[in-house]
């Protein structure tokens, strides 16, 4: 039940296209819903301009085509052998004198040839050749003359002698003639025709601006919408039945489902508050998956958003994003909003970061119990990893949630079921009858996401080795995931460091071993089952910058007794005590830094918080506020008690390890040779040594 990326299923091929269309349309509507009024108006205007301009262009094309047909109909056939789109270029051409219309009315016109060239829309260039007594008189009429010429053509005697010739249809001789006429009439072109190039540029700029605006809107839509999108139920793969274990948590989610589906009946009992649900618990326990499966079962779209993205560093940044989310949700009316990583929003307000308080206040108003009917069916699921015992929460925020679901880490049986589930997904690549007890034990306190990662890592290792997944592969994967990648090169050439590390780690191990041997009465099988240590290694771990490590499992007991705490302290002090025994007080290393830190915390918990070793059981740690700097508030009695118990337990640990120095020396040599030893191998070496099957060498105590 890991928090993972939002699952998406591939739709059937027949529905893929329409699903993509619906998604695109929904995204466009969401973007439109979160914009300001000015942006909406601008988009609507542009949306109307696009079809209007297209229709206008189509109508102009139709008019142009109709005009061309009319021109063809007005064309008269020339002399025999001449086509309708020709003129007699053999006749001499002279420039007409006087007004063209007067010349047409006073001369015996034989033919009137209009040579034209379309420019843009309804504009054109034209030259009129009037044939009279074997000569052609050339005119370049003005716009006014052209309009009068057109009007009189229907009734004038020369109207039946009109011939229209497109310039593009002229032969070589005709084009040469027109070039000479162009030079003659260059200064007489009408102003409207001289400005035709301006009209063309204006039209191009208009198109370019419209195209640029659309591109800008597309990029803005893509950029501002990157993390805000709803996932439809059909896109979610899997179901709640795929979540193994944690039936108590799934029962809580079933209650949410029932309350939503029968909200009318619940309203009759006075349950009319909005659906605000809080998921809390460690990371990787399945909060995101469970929310997605709930959305699928309720057939509701779901929006996933991280609350960390609301921390913009600017006042109003997070609240603006929330406003966008609300606008998108209201458009759908029924949906789920999943806000993850929201622990900062549950902190007490009034801090130094005003923008965080602004975001929290906006969320408070959104989650308020008084809402309009339009958003009363929106389910808000706010998830966080906070721990109510160690973090002070904002009470006003907590009151907004009528349902709280607390996620937890899986127990032993649930971890076994989860591992078996992930192995069953690749059953044909897994060896039969696997013994998973060690893996389940070593993953104590790990989340389902960690278990899934371990199984996946085992699969990767099996592929690389060309083998099946077995128990050894799983344990190696667990070590890789929980400890990190290790290497022996870092310590191979550092013999002194390797020996110190070996002595240190065997000190921890032997203190724990003697305790288990006494507790079990020397039952070696029980010791093997109960020992926390899985492996001791001299390989370096870059994850925590350690030159060696002990791979161990967590203890099965959640409650710690006074004796358990003292044993944990002895085990932690065993490493430093062994170093002092073998190398003297001056030879102790800083490798015990982490051990001493943990001892200090354990003893402070026992003395300062639990009141152990005191006459009265009081928690003085509760008087230090948030406890971030305990050393400044540590009273003298607590300090002296902690130091006294530390010295006592250190002395007991050192006395125990003195008796085991020959065994320690033997185990150190074997570990230096092997590089690492498992628990089975370590116990076998101890039994062989104690039975006298290996020679003993006693080292002088330093």
Describe this structure as you would to a colleague.
- The chain is of the alpha/beta class.
- 52% of the residues lie in helices and 10% in strands.
- It is built from 25 helices and 14 strands.
- The protein has a six-stranded mixed sheet, sandwiched between helices.
- Helix 8 packs parallel to helix 10 (287-298), helix 11 packs parallel to helix 12 and helix 19 (495-520) packs antiparallel against helix 21 (562-583).
- The longest helix has 38 residues, at 37-74.
- It is elongated.
- Residues 273-411 form the AAA+ ATPase domain.
Strand content is 5-15%
The gyration radius over C-alpha positions equals: 45 Å
* Helical coverage, percent range: 40-55%
Strand arrangement across the biggest beta sheet = 6-8-9-10-7-11
Describe the biggest sheet? 6 strands, mixed
Oligomer: single chain
Amino- and carboxy-terminal Cα gap: 53 Å
GO molecular function: ATP binding; ATP hydrolysis activity; ATP-dependent peptidase activity; metalloendopeptidase activity
Keywords: Membrane, Transmembrane, Transmembrane helix
Organism: Azospira restricta
Domain AAA+ ATPase: 273-411
TL;DR?
The protein is α/β, with parallel strands linked by helices and 702 residues long. It has helices at residues 13-33, 37-74, 100-106, 143-152, 172-185, 191-194, 196-224, 247-261, 263-268, 287-298, 317-332, 354-366, 395-398, 412-424, 437-442, 448-465, 471-482, 489-492, 495-520, 524-530, 562-583, 593-609, 636-659, 661-674, 679-690; strands at residues 93-95, 111-118, 124-132, 135-139, 162-166, 230-231, 276-280, 302-306, 335-340, 378-384, 403-406, 533-537, 549-552, 676-678. Strand 3 (124-132) and strand 4 form a beta hairpin.
